Amino acid sequence: MKKFYLSAIAVALVAVLPINSQAETDLSRIEERLQALEKRAEQAEQRAATAERKAQELEHIMMTQNVVPQASQSALPAETVPKKTQKSAPGVQYNNDFGELKLYGDVEFNMDAASRKGQITSVRTALGKGNEPNKSDNWDINGRILIGLDGKHMKDNGNYAGFSVQPLADMTGKMNLDDAAFYFGQQNSWEAKLGRYEAYDMFSLGQDTFIQYSGNTANDLYGDGFGYIYMMKEGRGRSGDGGSVQLSKSLDDWYFEINALVEDGTSLFDDKTYHGYQLDNKKNVIYLRPVIAWQPNDFKVAVAMESQVINNAYGDTVEGKWQDMSKRNGYGMTVGWNTLAQDPDNGLQLTLSTAYLDATSEKDLSIGGFGLWRRAQLGYIFAHNDIKDFNSDKISSDPNSVLNSTPGKYDIHTIYASYELPQILDLDNYKIYLGAYYSRINTDTHNMINSHDNDRYGARARFKYFF
Question: pTM for the whole thing?
Answer without folding.
Answer: 0.75
